[in-house]
Specification:
Largest sheet: 8 strands, antiparallel
Number of helices: 10
Shape: rod-shaped
Structural class: alpha+beta
Helix content: 10-25%
Number of strands: 25
């Protein structure tokens, strides 16, 4: 099972779009992002007020109040009783301070923990670990009988264990908890951020969602043994006072932000997205005690709709990315078939109108003389391609029909001479059917056009068929498009085409007295001329149709995949449910 099983039209799902990325790709891209991130250096400083409560203070104000003393410059274990700088900080009621900067620690990459570990379920649970390139904490730890110890420590560099904040967060809706320290308005704002569609699939937006969702959790400090004095200090200052302040306002942790770029144009305009986490399945079943490689194949699945109603995630019966694909792709995307083929039919229907031809025949007499008028032109009521519903099974050639078209124009007339001894009659009909079918990475368009003509006359009670009723034009145009995609996520196609001709041989053979004496010669010439001209017209329309349709598909109205600001696309194709699918690779976030 894989993306090839995608069937978003199943009523159990009904999403317009799915984007699924693996835990392995998310972590690799997050680390790449943090390695190049120019995050602000954040100073978090606290002093005691007159009631011995911790209150925040601006770093520069603190330094000024302490007579120019920078708490981060005083070495660890300096003596509070004798160090002049510490005496100034004591006089300024200094409690402690943290200096931190989001990024990758100066440690071997292989020693760093996974930033995001996906769980399972529609709430999209994630174990999030917020790493910092810089992490330093200073302050006083007070002991018995008024004793104090000065602490100034930083996370290791070169080797060792990084310091980081760890929290279990949810990337999908969490109920607004009235007992939470986060005010309901802030909880609601976080929920709205989860479903925002702008830059929805970028790693920057994912990191923002993770670092914002941490406010609704109870973060832990990792990498520092609990018995260390610095652990007590950071628990008091950072996990207590600082996070408490952020939770009340909803501000991002350590002032993280990213520039929101105007999204690249995309054909599918999403109204809302939700997320869920999907562990790797084996034969459709959850794996007990999965290996590290199998855990890395766990997927973060975005489900999107064009409606602004937030979609409800449900589990899928297949893996979007198989275990053997984890090292080759970041994830996959699937577009519901009706979404794509409604777009595709609207794209090609204007070009198809030129193939809808009205035929007309009129027959008149003046005395014993007959006149025939044949004409044809573009129909004023062309028929469009329409989505087939429900979709049937693939044909013997493996192609599945997804769009169909049917157009017919019938014209007939007759006329009788003044003496009622001779009459003529004829038919001049045009039919066209069309099918659009898909298989693998190909779209096939077939147009079948026929022109049926028949001419008869009666003389002295005897009937003659001068032109037997047959399809004197009977051709099938087959256009085969192979799918590709450009660097901007726009669908591009390469085209081959051919025409199959099964037209009946021209069989005009006038009979009776009129035929013998040549009275039908002018009618014969007229009928023959019409057939040749209309055939040439349809042939020309076929040729023009192929060129114009290919130019339209590849032109400025080309299908542009959602998420083109986050991914590159490859290996386009259609699933067994005829959804349009593509494999994804995260672009360099820096």
């Amino acid at each position: 099972m894989s993306v090839s099983q995608s069937n978003l039209s199943d009523p159990h799902y009904g999403y317009d779009l799915v984007v699924a990325v693996t835990q392995a790709s998310v972590n690799a891209t997050l680390k790449q992002y943090l390695a190049g991130l120019s995050a602000p250096e954040v100073f978090i400083c606290y002093v005691y007020d007159t009631n011995n409560n911790l209150v925040p203070i601006d770093y520069k104000t603190l330094v000024a109040n302490a007579g120019g003393t920078d708490p981060f410059s005083i070495p660890n274990n300096a003596k509070p009783a004798t160090d002049p700088g510490l005496q100034k900080l004591t006089a300024a009621n200094f409690a402690g301070a943290v200096k931190a900067q989001i990024g990758l620690p100066d440690l071997p990459l292989e020693s760093l923990p996974a930033i995001a570990t996906f769980g399972a379920g529609s709430s999209a649970p994630v174990l999030f670990k917020l790493l910092c390139s810089e992490f330093q904490i200073t302050g006083f730890q007070y002991g018995p009988r008024g004793s104090a110890t000065w602490i100034n420590q930083s996370q290791p560099t070169g080797s060792g264990t990084p310091w980081y904040f760890s929290a279990n967060v949810f990337l999908n809706d969490a109920p607004v908890d009235p007992n939470s320290p986060v005010p309901p308005a802030v909880q609601q704002r976080i929920n709205e951020l989860r479903h925002s569609v702008q830059n929805a699939f970028t790693i920057q937006k994912l990191f923002l969602d993770l670092s914002t969702a941490i406010l609704e959790s109870s973060p832990r400090i990792e990498g520092i043994p609990e018995g260390w004095p610095v652990w007590s200090l950071i628990s008091q200052l950072f996990l207590g006072a600082y996070f408490g302040k952020l939770q009340q306002k909803g501000d991002p942790v350590l002032s993280y932000s990213f520039t929101v770029h105007a999204p690249r144009p995309t054909t599918l305009q999403l109204g809302a997205v939700s997320r869920e986490c999907s562990p790797l399945l084996l034969n459709g079943q959850k794996i007990n005690n999965p290996s590290p490689a199998q855990l890395n194949a766990t997927e973060l699945v975005y489900v999107g709709t064009q409606s602004t109603t937030v979609p409800t995630p449900v589990p899928f019966a297949w893996n979007w990315v198989e275990l053997g694909e984890v090292n080759a792709v970041s994830g996959v995307q699937a577009v519901r078939r009706d979404v794509f083929f409604n777009y595709f039919s609207n794209l090609i229907n204007p070009e198809t109108a030129a193939l809808c031809i009205s035929t007309h025949v009129e027959m008149h007499h003046s005395g014993e003389n007959f006149t025939i008028s044949y004409s044809s032109g573009q129909s004023s009521s062309p028929q469009p391609f329409r989505v087939i519903s429900p979709i049937g099974q693939p044909g013997s050639d493996g192609f599945t029909d997804v769009l169909s078209l049917s157009f017919a124009n019938n014209s007939s007339d007759d006329s009788t001479s003044s003496t009622h001894l001779v009459s003529i009659s004829g038919d001049y009909n045009y039919d066209m059917t069309g099918r659009v079918a898909v298989k693998g990475n190909q779209i096939r368009i077939q147009i079948h056009a026929t022109v049926y003509m028949e001419f008869r006359h009666h003389e002295v009670g005897v009937g003659y068929t001068d032109l037997p009723g047959r399809n004197y034009y009977d051709k099938t145009l087959t256009v085969l498009y192979t799918l590709g995609v450009d660097q901007n996520g726009a669908l591009q196609v390469t085209e081959t085409h051919g025409t199959q001709d099964t037209s009946a041989a021209w069989a005009y053979d006038p009979g009776g007295i009129l035929g013998k004496f040549g009275f039908e010669n002018k009618l014969r010439d007229a009928v023959t001329d019409v057939e040749n001209k209309l055939a040439a017209r349809i042939d020309s329309a076929f040729t023009t149709y192929v060129g114009q349709m290919t130019a339209t598909i590849n032109g400025y109205r080309a299908w542009v995949f959602p998420g083109n600001d986050a991914f590159t696309f490859k290996n386009l194709g259609f699933s067994s449910g005829s959804d349009l699918t593509a494999q994804l690779t995260y672009v360099n976030p820096n």
